[in-house]
User: Fold this.
Amino acid sequence: MVRAGKKVGIFTSRNEVQPLVVGFPAAKYKAFPSLSQAEEALQQGREPYYQTKPASKSRPRIRHARDEQVEVPFVRESIAVDAACSGNPGVLEYRGVDLQTGKELFRQRFELWTNNVGEFLALVHGLSYLHQSNETKSIYSDSKIAIHWVELGKCKSTLKKTFPYLPLWQTVERAERWLQANGVHVPLLKWKTSDWGEIPADFGRK
Assistant:
């Protein structure tokens, strides 16, 4: 099973897994004795389960179950995404910013949604942007929830799929279909606000 690689999911042979993790920065993968255990690990995202394979000596040291902390240096060749919601639910915006140039790469606005869903959509938009431009940069988000949802390939919002949320759920479902078709092809990194300040894609509305 591969949690972070050129494609995420459950596979039945080592020959399928190897091309997905070799050369992929900080790939995460593990063999399980049963399909049910693999499905549980993929859904719950338990870090100690996974073997890790840093791409090179310059990459961050990856946490194992025995480690007390993770040493994760800043990766400047990345994009940052963030969302802002006026109310919960409320008017939602998200955007992506190039960390090297400070240029805004994309921005979207919705009339009624929640912040977690915005963070999820921002990550998928970032993945799509890099896929279309054939770039392999990492993506930073300050939302653990959104990163986990993207790794699962499923938005876990509890909002009902009824009016007035139905039009936005259609957007979410398109994002989920994109993930199913393309997978997570670049590293998704957690932004360390305590060390680095607000994420550069932040809207400054706190």
Notes: DSSP finds six helices and eight strands in the chain.
